[in-house]
Amino acid sequence: MPTIRRLPDNLVNRIAAGEVVERPSSALKELVENAIDAGATRIAVKLVEGGLTSLEVTDDGCGMTPDEMALALERHATSKLPDEAIEQVSTLGFRGEALPSIASVARFTLESRPQGAEQGWKRVVDHGELVAEGPAALPPGTRVRVENLFAKIPARRKFLRTPRSEYAACLDVVKRLAMARPDVAITLDHGERRILGLQGGEGLANRVARVVARELKDNGVAIDLERGTMRLTGIAGLPTYNRGIADHQYLFVNGRPVKDRLLTGAVRGAYADMLARDRHAVLALFLDMPPEEVDVNVHPAKTEVRFRDAQGVRGFIVSGLRQALATGDKRSAQTPDAGAMARWQAEPVRPEPSPALRSIFEGRDWSAPQQRVSEPSAAWRAEDADTMAAPLGRAEEAAPVAAEAREYPLGIARGQVANTYIVAEAQDGLVLVDQHAAHERLVLERLKAAGAEEAVKRSQALLIPEVVEMEETSCDRLEEAAETLAQHGLVIERFGPSAMLVRSLPHAIARTDPEKLLRDIDDDLALNGEALLLGEKLDLVLATMACHGSVRAGRTLRVDEMNALLREMERTPRSGQCNHGRPTWVKLSMEDVEKLFGRH
User: Which of these, 116, 106, 90, 108, lies nearest to 33 by C-alpha position?
Assistant: First the structure.
């Protein structure tokens, strides 16, 4: 019979390292968080081969004495919990496990010098064993170097990825922490290359734009909202500025970067009727709330959190995002596509002869006379469609425009191209509008305002309620969400330990298969913690209704109809994108137009 024994400290540390240190980026995250918690204003990160060979973090924080350094390398020793109130923790780290865990699986060099001390101190630990200790020369602060991660643990080393993949993970960690603290200057070097050079105190909007994408500042809306003790700040990209994967969604809770499914689901819900299902928003959101309202001690790497009032948090984020987008989403992602701009062709120009040659040959025909047989010239056949195709563009003389019309954001209609695109002149450039996509969004907003959304959600009772057998855990999830689902017209109730009874379906999707619908909703609940799928299906019904009721591409519009469409777009929320997240209009600034003609 196996006997119970106390594990030796080196094995305990290696087990703890398995939870905290999965790869170089995990170690880097812990070290940069320690530097921030130490009050650093400048942090320098250096990587070699994506951190597989070495990674180094240097800061100008408070530093440590030799005795504190020795204590820091013991498990569960930390300066971040002065008392036992762990629910009040405000630092990024608090468990005291990171340094001993990293030191047990790598060659670990710790150098530190407190502010005001004459010299620093160094401790070198190789896979859990202290191998060197003594004075060190360094400025006030701390420098930590991690070399040959998992070198003596081949079973772990072989699961690490290529240097390029590990570098990408390290870069993501640094970016997230850099956004969390725009007041801290951060540099990142990979080998001999400087990857990031961020100055401290540059402001949240500038820091996010520099880290995520420079275009986000021009194609996003600022968020600053409060509700009770919660505050939401950040930048949310316009729906037209989207990505194919959700790797550009950065979420922070009390300054801590997190990857939380509730927050991700809230973002998806906020953009639900503005983005296609396979497109994802680009944003950086910062949620601040009292520490006792959120539990950060639910994940070994502290990348997940748990909220006391999860539904309240989700509702705040969804309504906050929608409110912010309603103020700025009449805009579109306006930067012209570089590929499209490059395809503009200039008329080829015949090179002029030099001034000397021009004076000799000018005004005379020096070509040899040619004898040739030619067909008699054909008469002008303007009405022959084979000879001259109808032009794709059409313009009409516009009626006199009032002086205040110059201030219209989308300008005044000047014509129509291919019976699909409206050409308008604004005060600061040329506007092209996709008439079908624009009118589709306008019709959708009209349907919602007229109560069509409630009509779509109206329940239709089944003549014979249908029993759907499912796993007990799935039934538990659906039972918890039953009240929310009923608001969308889906009425269900528990029918024994492993079955659900479907009594009513939403009127708009009354012919759907109840079993398939419930299984899809259960998968959605398991993935996002929220039943977003049903709302998306109903939004799709409304979008289809709007599509069929909107102006079709290919329809000829009069100038007054075009102007009426432009004015309604300026008044309607979310008119900058269609129901699938594509832009309804784009603008060429006068500067862009002048560049096309070589005037700039």
Answer: 90
Radius of gyration of the chain (CA): 32
The alpha carbon of residue 381 and the mean position of all alpha carbons in its chain are separated, in whole angstroms, by 57
Residues in the chain: 600
pLDDT computed for residue 526 by the predictor: 81
- Average pLDDT on 476-502 reads 90
Is residue 532 within 8 Å of residue 270, measured between CB atoms? no
| Dist. CA 337–CA 346, nearest whole Å | 18
Which residues, in sequence order, are CB contacts of 124 under 8 Å at separation 6+?
107, 108, 109, 110, 130, 131, 132, 133
Tokens of 338: 């570089």
Of 337, 409, 332, whose CA–CA distance to 574 is shortest? 332
| Mean pLDDT for the stretch of residues 478-496 | 89
Q: How far apart are CA 383 and CA 545, in angstroms?
A: 41
Interatomic CA distance for residues 589 and 68, integer angstroms: 60
Task: Tell me the pLDDT of the chain averaged across its residues.
Answer: 82
pLDDT tens-digit profile of 438-450? 888 888 888 777 7
Q: How far is CA 424 from the centre of its chain?
A: 32
Q: Return the number of other C-beta atoms located less than 10 Å from residue 503's C-beta.
A: 15
Residue 213: Cβ within 10 Å count: 17
